[in-house]
Amino acid sequence: xxxxxxxxxxxAEAPQVGELSPPDRTLMGPGxxxxxxxxxxxxxxxxxxxxxxxxxxxxxxVQELLRYTFRTDxxxxxxxxxxxxxxxxxxxGNLVEPGDMMLVPTNGYFGERMAxxxxxxxxxVVEVDAPWGEPLDPAxxxxxxxxxxxxxxxxxxxxxxxxxxxxxxxxxxxIAHAHDAYVIADCVTSLGGVEMRVDEWxxxxxxxGPQKCLSCPPGASPLTLNDRAMDKVLDRDEQPRSWYLDxxxxxxxxxxxxxxxxxxxxxxxxxxREALRLVAEEGIESRWERHRAVxxxxxxxxxxxxxxxxxxxxxxxxxxNAVRVPDGIDDGAVIDYLLEEYDIEIxxxxxxxxxxxxxxxxxxxxxxxxxxxFLLAALEDALADQGFDGN
Length: 391
Ligand SMILES: *Cc1c(COP(=O)(O)O)cnc(C)c1O
Prior knowledge:
GO molecular function: transaminase activity
Largest sheet: 7 strands, mixed
Bound molecules: pyridoxal-5'-phosphate
Distance between the termini: 70 Å
Structural class: alpha/beta
Cofactor: pyridoxal 5'-phosphate
Number of domains: 2
Protein name: Pyridoxal-phosphate-dependent aminotransferase family protein
Family: Belongs to the class-V pyridoxal-phosphate-dependent aminotransferase family.
Mean pLDDT: 96
Keywords: Aminotransferase, Pyridoxal phosphate, Transferase
CATH class of the largest domain: Alpha Beta
CATH topology of the largest domain: Aspartate Aminotransferase, domain 2
Helix content: 25-40%
């Protein structure tokens, strides 16, 4: 030790914290999903600067891989620094201008978050209703457009709170475009796990998160905008309220200029690059198919245990299986038992479905047959411990 200068006196008491050793969990909840070892390895590689030519090349590769995964040619396709809510707020906070009207769905938890973000952006919010556990009906969306003429329409492609997949995406985008509105799709629990075709389905803006079907730690979140949407963003009269998420500024870093805006989360960009490389290696269509097959076995196994899925089969969301809690069973006790006895994470219901469902994720690297078999065996035991006999 070198001698301390005389101005610094005394020794503050340093906290005694042990070495990091989180439990080894099997993650079958609504996210985060398990991370592929290759992604974890990628995260332990040395940093380069965020303007290093080597990093600029990595940025280009991430953008190319994101376009492939979103099924889009959109130039404005980037990972936003932050979790899925950051890409969500980047989408809504830039597209919705003060005085704009945004139409949001009421059939799940994340429509409410859309509404809250639109209000903070200075927008007015109107709703299109559907019960929690059902998708939007295009006829209701049409009626809401006729009644309110919204400027922006947001919907949730894969509702993580209800386990419902929104079908008819092209029908919804057709309705919105016939009314000159812009469409924002929440693809947080669908990107890389469930079929999503941004260009073919004419979605103007789509955002996602890394820690669901991409099986990447949270930190850099996919966002894509077509030229029409980006034109609206670049033509705004007023600056967006967030400096950090201002896409006209982020464009300077991710676009041709590559000028400093904020320091990119280098390690998270490495991580999503490797996670997306895994998507490309598997092939996006094969990956959608794997989620259907593995989650299909999960669903069949749950039904064999005597449990009932919350969503009707037509709207079943492979990446998030909402299953009804049988009468007389304490949902929390089962969740605790799985965690304590088996180190398995599943989640309880949210909002209108609190206490009524368990939410079992089957996403990315967690969507593997061995995880499903392990969970089903553990769940059978947990239910028996609660006195449930499904047969
Ligand atoms: C998880 C999730 C979000 C928010 O993502 P965070 O990473 O938690 O910020 C938004 N929408 C949906 C549908 C989600 O499942």
